[in-house]
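User: Okay, second chain of the day. Same drill as before: sequence in, structure tokens out.
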Amino acid sequence: MYLRSLKRLCGSMTVELTLLMPFLIGVFLFLFFSLYYLHDIAAIQKGCSAALIRGSLIRDDTEARREMQEAMEEIRLLGKWDLEKNIRIDREKVSVAVKGNMNVREGLFLKLIRDRYVYETSMSTERIDETAYIRSKRR
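Assistant: Same drill. Structure tokens below.
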């Protein structure tokens, strides 16, 4: 009697797990893909901030542009992105704008989230003239 009830319980557990596993795998893949996306956004923002800091401290425009482009090229992403990077240097301001699309391969993710993985940011800061700042503080 005991063996018959045990067999019935084990069989129902197998059927329930068979129905549950595709859902759990889908949730895991969604979280994994979302973490890739969030990591890449954080890396883009860090690269923009680094470019602004480097560019705001240099007086010469060509050298500031070169340093900012170098900082933007140091961005390392996990996913494949088409990034459009714009650097603008004025007399008193330095700004960076990045617009990008995350490339998703063919398959389920492409059909579900085609237009959602687009990111755009722009940051700007004032240029710092260290000599003028020190002189103003001495007075």
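The beta strands are 80-89, 93-103, 118-126.

User: Thanks, on to the next one.
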